[in-house]
Amino acid sequence: MSDEEHQFESKADAGASKTFPQQAGTIRKNGYIVIKNRACKVVEVSTSKTGKHGHAKCHFVAIDIFNGKKLEDIVPSSHNCDVPHVNRTDYQLIDISEDGFVSLLTESGGTKDDLKLPTDDTLLTQIKDGFAEGKDLVVTVMSAMGEEQICALKDIGPK
């Protein structure tokens, strides 16, 4: 054995992968799936019968959870698909900066300042109008595969 000491530099996070494998035949409507490296919510699943050559196939129609684009994929039902880890977290809105970034209050009492306002026009106007009126607003942030976006808004009353 050698007497050398080895230093390993790990650049990985806490072992949490951005996705996990799941058999295509077990993914249902309203579940999540990765299509073309995008986290998507499944809106339609149809399964074809086994043919003369090969497996039954699942046809997925899904909507990208961040940009709303429709994506489709066909996968043999016995094969594995990537399913994203999707998290929803609520934060209280503190401030909106001129450049479109929001300042949010975390549960630990810190602030989160790296999120932009949503691109969805109705949600954007609801947030801006509510903030201008001085209401206490709680935004729901959806995160998956290293992306985050505000996806919902709750009004918890006037300040």
Automatic annotation (TrEMBL):
User: InterPro entries per the record?
Assistant: IF5A-like, IF5A-like_N, IF5A_C, NA-bd_OB-fold, Rib_uL2_dom2, Trans_elong_IF5A_hypusine_site, Translation_prot_SH3-like_sf
Q: Where is the composition biased (Basic and acidic residues)?
A: 1-12
Q: Which residues form the Translation initiation factor 5A C-terminal domain?
A: 85-154
Give UniProt keywords alphabetically. Answer: Elongation factor, Hypusine, Initiation factor, Protein biosynthesis
Which residue intervals make up region (Disordered)?
1-21
The UniProt PTM text for this protein says: eIF-5A seems to be the only eukaryotic protein to have a hypusine residue which is a post-translational modification of a lysine by the addition of a butylamino group.
The record's NCBIfam families line, in alphabetical order, gives:
eIF_5A (TIGR00037)
Family (UniProt): Belongs to the eIF-5A family.
Function field: Translation factor that promotes translation elongation and termination, particularly upon ribosome stalling at specific amino acid sequence contexts. Binds between the exit (E) and peptidyl (P) site of the ribosome and promotes rescue of stalled ribosome: specifically required for efficient translation of polyproline-containing peptides as well as other motifs that stall the ribosome. Acts as ribosome quality control (RQC) cofactor by joining the RQC complex to facilitate peptidyl transfer during CAT tailing step.
What is the official name of this protein in its record? Eukaryotic translation initiation factor 5A
Write the lineage as a comma-separated list.
Eukaryota, Viridiplantae, Streptophyta, Embryophyta, Tracheophyta
